[in-house]
Amino acid sequence: ADKTIEFNASQENILINLDIILMRRAISNLILNALVHNDSNVKIVVHLEKKERTHITIKDNGKGIEKKEVDNIFDRYFRGTNTGTLHKGSGLGMAIAKDIIQKHDGEIVINSTVGKGTSINIVL
Ligand SMILES: Nc1ncnc2c1ncn2[C@@H]1O[C@H](COP(=O)(O)OP(=O)(O)OP(=O)(O)O)[C@@H](O)[C@H]1O
Ligand SMILES: [Mg+2]
Asked: Tell me, which fold does domain 4-123 have in CATH?
């Protein structure tokens, strides 16, 4: 398989106050989703940008999520129909990520198109 993850940032160091254990959990849940719910050729880009606030984007060119499922994606125990039997998840990853971002007074938004991929945008 040749899944790839590319990381890029607008600057070398971005200073931000956060709970590193929680934030690491949030971001890794999202990167893990892009890895496990997509085919073996998926390309994932993680982008970090400091503007007035800090923007974190986790974007993949994978299979995407149906519109009606996107509406429930942050609900606890919600699992999509796009995922194979290989990943036996609990449907908690996105709900946990959202909780953590909100605890940091941040925002998290998802955009997804079937056949094109998924983009998660976080603002802190
Ligand atoms: N990057 C993505 N590409 C395609 N589908 C995704 C992506 N991220 C999430 N999903 C869909 O959203 C659903 C919910 O994700 P969530 O992380 O909450 O649960 P899970 O991955 O199924 O289980 P868990 O995270 O608890 O192991 C997934 O079941 C999957 O259908
Ligand atoms: Mg998950």
From this structure: Heat Shock Protein 90 (3.30.565)
The ligand 1 atom at the shortest distance from the C-alpha of residue 80 is: 31
The region that residue 77 occupies, defined by phi over 0 for left and psi between -120 and 50 for alpha, beta otherwise, is: left
d(CA 119, CA 52): 21
Of 3, 29, 33, the residue with max ligand 1 atoms within 8 A of its CB, to mutate for a pocket test, comes to: 33
Q: Classify residue 112 as exposed, middle or buried by CB count within 10 Å of its CB (0-12, 13-18, 19+).
A: buried
- Domain boundaries, given as residue ranges, for the chain: 4-123
Q: Identify the pLDDT of residue 1.
A: 65
Both structure tokens of 26: 């949030």
pLDDT tens sequence across 14-32? 999 999 999 999 999 999 9
